[in-house]
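so im writing up the methods section and need the FAD-dependent oxidoreductase record in one place, dumping it here so i stop losing it
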Amino acid sequence: MTTPRSDATDYDVVVAGAGPVGLFLACELRLGGARVLVLERLAEVDETIKAGAINIPSAVALYRRGLLPELAAVWEAARERIRAFRGEDGESRLPPKFAGHFAGISMTKDLFDGSDPAWAEVGPAGDTGLGVPQAELERILARWAERLGVEVRRGVELTGFDAGADGVAVHVDGAPSIRAGWLVGCDGGRSTVRKAAGFAFPGTDPEITGYQAIVELTGGERLREGWNTTDTGTYAYGPFPGRILTVEFDGPPADRTAPVTAEELQAGVRRVTQVPEVTITNVLSATRFTDNARQAAEYRRGRVLLAGDAAHVHSPFGGQGLNLGLGDAMNLGWKLAAVVRGTAPVSLLDSYTAERHPLGAWVLDWTRAQIAVMRPDRHARALRRVVTDLALTTTGTTYLVTRISGVWQRYDLPGEHPLTGASAPDLELSDGTRLGDRLHAGRALLLDLADDPALRAHAAGYGDRLEVRTLACPDRPGLRALFVRPDGFVAWAADTANTRDTVAEGLPEALERWLGTPAARA
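--- predicted struct ---
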C-alpha cells in the first residue's frame, strides 16, 4: 500500500550530511517532488584531500542530470595540473595511457580490449571517468541543490532522533527538533545516524595506516612517480604537484582524528619510500586512512536509511568509496521520493538494499584483495608477482580495468532481455537528442522505437511520473522499446522480434513494479 504525505511534518526527508552523497541524494529527492532538508555539521566545504576522481557510472549519472559541462571544466583544470607536474617532457615521465591500478600494479590502455558494447554506449561521459576532486564535486552539487531549492543548513549538528511508525523527530544542537517523514544518514563512516538507529555494522578490523597528502617538499626528484612497492610498504607520488600517498602495515593509527603533522608525515614518507633526502616543508592538506572494512547488514530500518560511507567503509584503493555512495544516492532518491508522493508503496524501498548491498559487499572484497596483495611479507610478494603477470596481459588488464571503471555494474531485475538491469545505453535518437538528455528531469522514460500505439496505451495511466516518447534509433534497428527508470537503469526492453503479446505480458508488470499503480486504478 502507498503512504500519503503527512502535513504534520516540517520536511518529507531530512538528510544528515552535505558531502557529495548527501547533496546528490537531496537533489534527487527534490527532483522527485520531496520537501528535503540537509543538515551538515561543518560550516564550509571540507577541503581535505580525499577522492580525486569519479568512475564511469558516477560520470554517467551526473551527465544524466545535466552536470557534465561543469564536471568537464574541472577535469580540464586537473589535466593542466597533471601537465605541470610532468614538466615540458610531458608524457615521457608517466605512463602515457594509464588505465588504472590494482594494488598499485599500474595498467595501460595498450593492453585493454574495449570491444564490449557497453564501452561504446557510455556516451559523452567518456570511457574512463573524470578526474574531479571531491571538494570540487561537492561545490558543483551544492550549486545544483541551490538551483533546485534544496534547503541546506551548515554548521548544524544532528545529535539524535526518535523514530516512530509515522515519522522521525530529528534533534539538532541548540535548536528545536525537526519533524520529518524519513531520515537518511549520509554522515560518513562514523555515522551518528547509523549508531543511533542500531544498524549492525559487521566487517574486518584494520591492519594498515595510510596517509594521503598535498605537500611542499624538497628531494621530490628522488621519488619515483606513480605507484611503487618497497620492503616497508607502498607509496604513490603524483599525478599532481606535491601529492603523495603512503601505506604501512603496522596496524591502525592510535588516533585517526588527530591532526596530521609535517613531522609525522615526513617520517612515514621516508620509511616507506626509503629516500631519506625527502623533506616536507609544508603540509597543504593531509588525511589518514585505514583498511577498516565494514558494511551495514541492511540499509533501512523503518523510516531511517543509510547511504554512502554511513552504510559501508573500506580502504580507498581503486577510488570506489565516493562512487559507491553516489550510486546509493541515485538508486535511493527517486524511490524514496515516489514513496513520499504516495505513488509507490513503501515496499519499493526494499529494492534499495537488494540492489545496492551486493555492490557494496563486492567493493569491500575488492579492497580487501588489494590489501592482501600489497602486504610486504614474502608470501604476499610472491602472490603479487603472480597477480602482476596476470594483470599485464590483455585478458587481465581488460578484466581489472572493467571492474575499476564500473562499466560491468548492473542490477538483477526481472526480465530476459540482455539490457534489463543494465545502465541504459546512451542512444542517439532521431530528434537529435541522446537518451541521457531525456533524463535531466529525473523522470522515468518509455522509448517507443517502433511507433506502437498498443505499447503506448500501457503507459496511459502514468502520465504524472513517466515520459513517453516515440522516436527512432537508427543505430539500434532491432530494438523495439525501452523502459528506463529515473536512475537510468533499464527496467524492461523488447526487440522488434518480440510479438505484441510478449510486450503486453512484460511492460505492464514492469511499469507497476517500479512506478506503482496507474492513475486509473489508484
